[in-house]
Design a protein that fits this description.
Elements lengths: L5 H15 L4 E2 L2 E2 L29 E10 L8 E2 L4 E7 L2 E5 L5 E4 L4 E3 L6 E5 L4 E10 L6 E2 L2
Antiparallel strand pairs: 1-2, 3-10, 4-11, 5-8, 5-10, 6-7, 6-9
Length: 148
């Protein structure tokens, strides 16, 4: 390879790698002019400011739930042993922390980084609430634990 500049080799490798991803939308932004990527949530802490600890041990398991809460309904007090985030599709949801009564109101298009290990509940407003909730757990670990 004498006489072959390293920069030409590096440029060729980068060009090849970029062409392989030309039709894919990447998490950090679109790789194609027609693709659109928007970060809805990126957080190292839950909505109450508490930093997330490590993910649960074991085989990773992703779960996505669509949850519909009827109008004027309070869910039971509960906690999550795994990190999760809820996207509000429709309706108004008030999330309340049992420990101190702290509340947060969410509406359509908003994302909530949920608390791990802290007891809380959600209450819907005058309309049903539809949520899409993403859980990053481990096989055999419950997503939600009710607290009475």
């Amino acid at each position: 390879m004498q006489g072959f500049p390293f920069s030409r080799l590096a440029t060729g490798i980068v060009s090849l790698a970029l062409s392989a991803f030309s039709g894919v939308a990447l998490a950090d932004g679109p790789a194609h002019a027609g693709a659109v990527s928007e970060v809805l949530l990126k957080s190292t802490a839950s909505w109450d400011g508490k930093a997330y600890a490590a993910y649960p041990a074991g085989q990773p398991e992703m779960t996505v739930l669509k949850i519909t809460i009827p109008p004027k309904t309070s869910l039971p007090w509960h906690h999550h042993p795994v990190p999760n985030a809820a996207y509000v599709v429709s309706g108004q949801l008030t999330v309340e922390k049992q420990e101190n009564g702290e509340k947060k109101l969410l509406g359509p298009g908003q994302v909530l980084p949920e608390m791990v290990g802290s007891i809380h509940r959600g209450t819907s407003g005058d309309e049903p609430v539809v949520l899409i909730v993403f859980y990053a757990g481990a096989q055999g670990t419950p997503l939600t634990i009710k607290n009475d």
